[in-house]
Amino acid sequence: MKQSIKTPPTALLEAVELIEPLLQKRLESFDLPANLYDAASYAVVNGGKRVRPALTLMCCEVVGGSRDLAIDAAIAVEFIHCFSLVHDDLPSIDNDELRRGKPTLHIHAGEAMAVLAGDLLLPLAFELLSNGQYTATQQSKLVRTLASATRKMVAGQVYDTLGGLPEHLSAEDGLKEIHKNKTGALISCACTLGGICGKASDAHLKAIQEFGETTGLMFQIVDDLIDLQGESEHVGKATGKDADAGKKTYPGTIGVEESLCAVQSLQKRAEEALSPLGNDAETLRLFNLWMAHRTR
Ligand code: GRG
Predict the structure, then answer these.
(1) Nearest-10 Cα torsion for 194, 4, 14, 31
(2) Domain with 12 in it: what CATH number?
(3) Do 114 and 104 touch, CB atoms closer than 8 A?
């Protein structure tokens, strides 16, 4: 059956069904004060699309592993993502009041708790990667991959909000650098983690990595377009804020038409990157197509 690009692909729906209850379960497995657990739960179990963990599960399967092997890595990457959203929304950063259709954590539980619950999700992610289910080699690769993506995400956020990009970069290249670090690195990492869990060959891991990097950049350009064109109720967060805040975005820098062309070309490049994986990568191809056309 041919899948419509407008509806979330079956692989995403299946991943969400599997991951959603486990996010809560893993949080419950840690020894935490009740108020901190509540805040972390609020930050994590709240209707996110779960794109990153779905990619981890899919990439593991695509290289021949069982997706059960990738569950903890998938949850770890979503914890880091949720951490970044909580801190991104803080008054000292983006000062947002709505996230995933609900008041942001600092509105709900106060700023101090939001800072601390965000902080908490970082070590929890790494505890999950070192819980003994992965071999020592896998564990060291997983930890290094997630740590380096998180470092890049922080650097990307600094470039975006506080500056520091190399001065020789053009406006477009500077923006690409921001997007690749701030958003692309974690999406790419989600893919690579799946490949590592599935014990991918070097050639397959390289293909997965390239797919992830290209898809990650594409994801943020689509996000910029949604912020410009989407309705807040549909998106679940304030829209139009980027332009109002004078933020650098793809449509703001190269225009809407060129941004749409960039999305199309990255979607094709991501698809090409998958060629070493042959027909086994069909789920990733469909997922990528949906991500290029998503509206929230
Ligand atoms: C040290 C983890 C950490 C973070 C501190 C604040 C910060 C540095 C980084 C911010 C990174 C950030 C929020 C990038 C935006 C990425 C993005 C496109 C978010 C929206 O992702 P979706 O659409 O959201 O997948 P849902 O809600 O569906 O999960």
Answers:
(1) 70
(2) 1.10.600.10
(3) yes
Residue listed under structure tokens 């899919």: 58
Check residue 244 and give its pLDDT. 64
Q: Under a CB-based contact definition with an 8 Å cutoff, are residues 160 and 152 in contact?
A: no
Residue 154, ligand 1, Cβ within 6 A? yes
pTM of the predicted model over 0.85? yes
154-193 pLDDT, tens per residue?
A: 999 999 999 999 999 999 999 999 999 999 999 999 999 9
The DSSP secondary structure of 223-268, one letter per residue, reads HHHHHHH--HHHHTS--SHHHHTT---HHHHH-HHHHHHHHHHHHH
Ligand 1 pocket mutation pick from 19, 88, 159, 186 by most atoms within 8 angstroms of CB: 88
Residue type, 68: D
Q: Is ligand 1 within 6 A of the CB of residue 182?
A: yes
User: If you compute the radius of gyration of the chain from its CA atoms, what whole number of angstroms results?
Assistant: 18
Residue 169 class from Cβ within 10 Å (0-12 exposed, 13-18 middle, 19+ buried)? middle
Banded pLDDT at 243 (limits 50, 70, 90): low
Torsion of CA 163, 167, 172, 173, to 10 degrees: -100
- Tell me the per-residue pLDDT of 87-97, one tens digit each, with 9 for 90 and over: 999 999 999 99
Residue 183 CB–ligand 1 contact under 6 Å: yes
Dump strand ranges (E) for 60-184: 98-99, 102-103
- Domain of 129 in residue numbering reads as 2-293
The number of distinct structural domains making up the chain is 1
Residue 38 Cα, ligand 1 centroid: separation in angstroms?
20
